[in-house]
UniProtKB/TrEMBL annotation:
This is Preprotein translocase subunit YajC. It is a single-pass membrane protein. Belongs to the YajC family. The lineage of its organism: Bacteria, Bacillati, Bacillota, Bacilli, Bacillales. The keyword Transport applies.
Length: 102
């Protein structure tokens, strides 16, 4: 009778491992495949937006190419050609095509 009770206690701990082990494993895999790369992309994008300066050639989210002529904390004015200047939110910049020459 004591041996039967000892076997039940040891299989209970193993039962928890079989029950919750796959859930923990799925969370770890999802973290390394989805959450962590997204955080890295967000960090690089925010550093790119923080490093924008006057004279940078940029591409907006809509695909517009231009050069930054004025920039504030949340707005940047982009010169598209010699005459046309357009105002965008700073977050609308998708990529820096060519950094400004110092």
């Amino acid at each position: 009778m004591f041996l039967l009770a000892d076997d039940t206690a040891s299989t209970g701990a193993v039962g928890y491992l079989y029950t919750y082990g796959p859930l923990v494993l799925m969370f770890v895999v999802l973290y390394f495949l989805l959450i962590r790369p997204q955080q890295k992309r967000q960090k690089t994008r925010s550093s790119m937006l923080g490093g924008l300066k006057k004279g940078d050639k940029v591409v907006t989210i809509g695909g517009l190419h231009g050069t930054i002529v004025e920039i504030t904390d949340d707005i940047c004015v982009i010169r598209v050609n010699d005459v046309t200047k357009l105002t965008f939110d700073r977050s609308a910049v998708n990529a820096v095509a060519q950094p400004a020459k110092e």
